[in-house]
From TrEMBL:
Descriptive protein name: Uncharacterized protein
Residues that span the membrane, as ranges: 87-106
Phylogenetic classification of the source organism: Bacteria, Pseudomonadati, Bacteroidota, Flavobacteriia, Flavobacteriales
Keywords for the protein's UniProt record, in alphabetical order: Membrane, TPR repeat, Transmembrane, Transmembrane helix
TPR repeats: 168-201
Pfam families: TPR_16, TPR_8
InterPro entries: TPR-like_helical_dom_sf, TPR_rpt
Domain of life, per lineage: Bacteria
Length: 244
């Protein structure tokens, strides 16, 4: 994967216009065609987006600092004329340092984490129906899962799994819920156990989410292994992006 992205001034201006909605309809159509076919351009758009967010945040901080300075009583301000004359320079330098810090902050995310964020979508889940008591608890948790309240879903599902550890459907959705909730190691534990069991229920889906979990942890060797094992279009697309 490419770790360094070089953006020319012309590219920056064009991407900025795209993000700000300033392209003409024809320009927008052409840009979106290029964006669809060029993963490198997509990465550049993300970089410019992070930088623009940083600029906006730094500008807001500068305005806030100015507001607080205006609240200071005049009798407490006893700076010499030479110090006041240097104030604009200090302000510009402070904004520059803030911008640099924000740019570095927004770029601390690894390429693997960016790919994970780009491609990870939780399994849509199962239709919620009524049934026995245990089934009701499962589908009750499924409602929370579909609402992206993964913690509540896990709280409802884990006791059910303790009672029935061979329930592949339950273990699969628990693994995906852990991954969606940011608990990568627990997701790997459940999904690997499921993939190693017989029969291999949800084989392709389980392998895909295992690959995504290892991708998030920047373990590309394991990520490639499981994504290759998963015979899904989503896995193939992630593999293409990893190798670009």
């Amino acid at each position: 994967m490419n770790e360094k992205i070089n953006i020319t001034e012309k590219e920056f201006e064009r991407i900025e216009k795209y993000l700000m909605g300033d392209l003409s309809p024809n320009e927008l159509h052409q840009f979106e065609l290029e964006l669809h076919n060029d993963s490198n351009l997509e990465a550049k758009v993300e970089e410019v987006k992070y930088l623009l967010i940083g600029i906006e945040t730094a500008s807001l901080k500068s305005q806030l600092n100015q507001f607080h300075e205006e609240l200071v009583p005049s009798k407490e301000i006893s700076k010499s004329a030479s110090t006041r004359s240097r104030a604009p320079i200090y302000a510009i330098a402070a904004v520059f340092v803030a911008l640099l810090g924000l740019f570095l902050f927004f770029n601390t995310e690894s390429e693997s984490e960016k790919l994970f964020a780009k491609h990870f979508v939780p399994d849509p889940g199962l239709p919620t129906t009524m049934g026995t008591t245990d089934n009701f608890k499962f589908y009750d948790g499924m409602v929370n899962y579909k609402q992206e309240d993964f913690k509540t879903a896990l709280d409802k599902w884990n006791p059910l799994l303790e009672k029935n550890p061979k329930n592949d459907t339950l273990r699969y959705f628990i693994g995906v819920a852990y991954l969606a909730n940011g608990d990568d190691q627990k997701a790997i534990t459940d999904l690997e156990r499921l993939l190693n069991s017989e029969p291999k229920s949800f084989k392709n889906e389980t392998a895909f989410y295992l690959g995504m979990a290892y991708l998030k942890l920047d373990n590309l060797e394991e990520a490639r292994k499981y994504l290759t094992f998963s015979d899904t279009d989503s896995a193939k697309q992630v593999l293409l992006d990893i190798d670009n």
